[in-house]
Amino acid sequence: MKSAPGPVAVLIRALMLAGAMFASAGGHAQGAAVFVDAPAGKLEGVREDGTNVFRAVPYALPPVGDRRWRPPAPMPHWTGARKARIAGAACMQPPMAAGPYARGEQKMAEDCLTLDVTAPANARNAPVMVWIHGGTLIWGTAQSKMYDGREFAKRGIVLVSINYRLGALGYLAHPGLSKESPDHVSGNYGLLDQIAALKWVRANIAAFGGNARNVTVFGESAGALSVEYLLAAPPARGLFDKAIVESGYLFTTPELRTPRYEEGSAETIGATVAAKIGAPDIAALRAMDARKLIEATSAAGYVPYGTIDGKILTRQLVDTFDRGEQAPVPLIAGFNSGEIQSLRFLLPPLPADAAAYTREIKARYGDLADAYLKLYPPRDFEQTRLAATRDTVFGWTAERLVRKQAALGQKSFLYFFSHTYPSELAADLAAFHASEVPFVFGTFADTPPGWPAIPDTPDERALAGAMLDYWTGFARTGTPSAAHAPAWKPFSQRASYMHFADTPQPSENLMPGMFDLHEQVMCRRRASGTQSWTWRAGSTAPVLPKAGGC
After folding, report:
1. Distances (CA, A) of 165 to 11, 84, 189, 220, 291
2. Spatial CB neighbours of 61, under 8 Å, sequence gap ≥ 6
3. How far apart are CA 69 and CA 80, in angstroms?
4. Mind telling me the catalytic residues?
5. 448, burial (CB in 10 Å: exposed 0-12, middle 13-18, buried 19+)
6. Which end of the chain is less congested by CB atoms within 10 angstroms, N or C?
7. Cα R_g (the chain), whole angstroms
8. Beta bridge partners of 34
9. For the CA atoms of 532, 245, 40, 144, what is the dihedral angle to 10 degrees?
């Protein structure tokens, strides 16, 4: 049975055409050898800038041959000192179009389930932060230079950055794969990789000076979505203690065997893609060259998602959080003012005039049209559609996450990043999607080639230093704190948030009415059972059901 692509599929296909995240990796300077003797085995790393760095450490058996599309298996203990000085291979991924996120050529392999560890030279019982890279679950690598962990190590943090299977190799569901599974499920292999990496951290990180009982997971974009999946996934429970979601999104997710919310079932999607690339069965899919498989499935329209399978992901994320079934851990979540500046293919078309715009909104949003028009008025249409799409995708998600975590009695913190600099403004990319990442890592000089150059000035360094301090303070204690910056109050205190402009600015009541509007829209679409809640805003949104709610 053929399934039409759902709205999320359309979105990610657009991302694939546009080029969606950065993944540039490169060589690293080599210093003196350092050694650790971990339960997994002995490792030889390198001392760099006063930190100990261990690269391409395997946390699971290579997912190759018959292990393709199987859950990750533990890596057996090795003997002797394993070299861990050189960057490893990225997981298989298709070429990326030019743009601010594009990376150059990189080494790729199906044997890619590795992680990098950067630790203070004399760490003991240090907080641990585990970074999950973005890239729409299609692109990315732990080895990107922009994710260098030395600034974290200087603040007493052990940073772990992980690879996980991407694209069809990481997320394909298929009836044949479900049939061979003891649990009768398929898909979610990349998510299972992330869970395996967290188990490896729990078992081994003490050897690097880390505290296995103080682990914070954090990620941006698809990495943030991965953190949301981990918060929701029962098998990940107890493997981390805090979470940070940077520009996450709460889209509908395909269910394993049931088409719903405009999305085909995950198994039907997988079977359709396999037929398109001429693979009659799982044996044929496993026999394909990994690079050809990734490129063929991408060309056939496959886009990776998590799968609601009843085991790894039990229900839609919004339902999990509504029921209070997510991991009860402290949380930071936030988004950027210019998210859509670099994702303009998501925008609805410009209206002819104010009257046409108003008619469209009234026709699509019905009794909620007045609230929509108040937030996104019929003037300066470029800014209106940028703001509406940003809030539909990222703004509503961030506030929903902190609200739901606060409802569990957990400390949760909201942020809004609007900082800009001259080259961003010149490129019309002010505070664009992912632009906070080099400030979080303090890696101004290591951004991808098309990224607007960040001026290395005292003011820019001060903002990056404050963000690093907040992030690492949160990892240390569950409260984001910075020695020379203002206190960041939990969202539960007067809807507080931190505004990262030229400096950190404590604020309250971010965008009044924004969350309530988009929450009502999502609730009605969910209640209908026939509409997806995704990126569609304004004139691209379907006509909203008149009834239904949370």
Report:
1. 21, 20, 7, 17, 13
2. 67, 72, 73, 74, 75, 76, 113
3. 30
4. 221, 339, 433
5. buried
6. N
7. 22
8. 45
9. 100
List, in sequence order, every beta strand (DSSP E) within 109-182: 114-120, 126-132, 158-162
- In tens, the pLDDT along 47-86 reads 999 999 999 999 999 999 999 999 999 999 999 999 999 9
Which sign does the torsion angle of CA 443, 444, 447, 451 carry? positive
Q: How many residues does the chain have?
A: 550
Identify whether the C-beta of residue 50 lies closer than 8 Å to the C-beta of residue 271. no
The Cα–Cα gap between 237 and 214 comes to: 14
Phi/psi at 428 (nearest 5 deg)? 55, 45
* Both tokens assigned to 82: 């394993």
pTM as predicted: 0.95
Nearest by Cα to 112 from 145, 167, 41, 64: 64
Mean pLDDT over 94-98 rounds to 80
Give the three-class secondary structure for 229: helix
Q: How far apart are the first and last CA of the chain?
A: 33
Give the separation between CA 115 and CA 107, rounded to whole angstroms.
15
pLDDT band of residue 10 (cuts 50, 70, 90) is low
List, for residues 329-353, the tens digit of each pLDDT value: 999 999 999 999 999 999 999 999 9
3 state SS of 166:
coil
In angstroms, what CA-CA distances link 189 with 289, 329, 357? 18, 24, 43
Q: What angle do CA 313, 173, 217 make, to 5 degrees?
A: 40
How many angstroms separate the CA atoms of 61 and 63, rounded? 6
Model confidence band, residue 95 (pLDDT cutoffs 50, 70, 90): confident
Long-range CB contacts for residues 423-430, cutoff 8 Å, separation at least 24: 423/452, 423/453, 423/454, 423/455, 424/452, 426/452, 427/100, 427/452, 428/341, 429/100, 429/338, 429/341, 429/342, 430/337, 430/338, 430/341
Helix (H) or strand (E) holding 496: strand 496-500
pLDDT for res 5? 54
- Cα separation, 225 vs 249, whole angstroms: 6
Residues 274 and 300: their CA atoms lie apart, in Å, by 9
Checking if the pLDDT of 7 tops 80, the result is no
Tokens of 314: 């039990």
Which residues have a Cβ under 8 Å from the Cβ of 344 and sit 6 or more positions away?
Answer: none
Q: What is the residue type of 56?
A: A
- Report pLDDT for 25: 44
- Residue for token digits 């078309």? 349
Q: Which helix (H) or strand (E) holds 255?
A: none
Placement of tokens 């951290």 in the chain: 201
pLDDT tens-digit readout, 188-242: 999 999 999 999 999 999 999 999 999 999 999 999 999 999 999 999 999 999 9
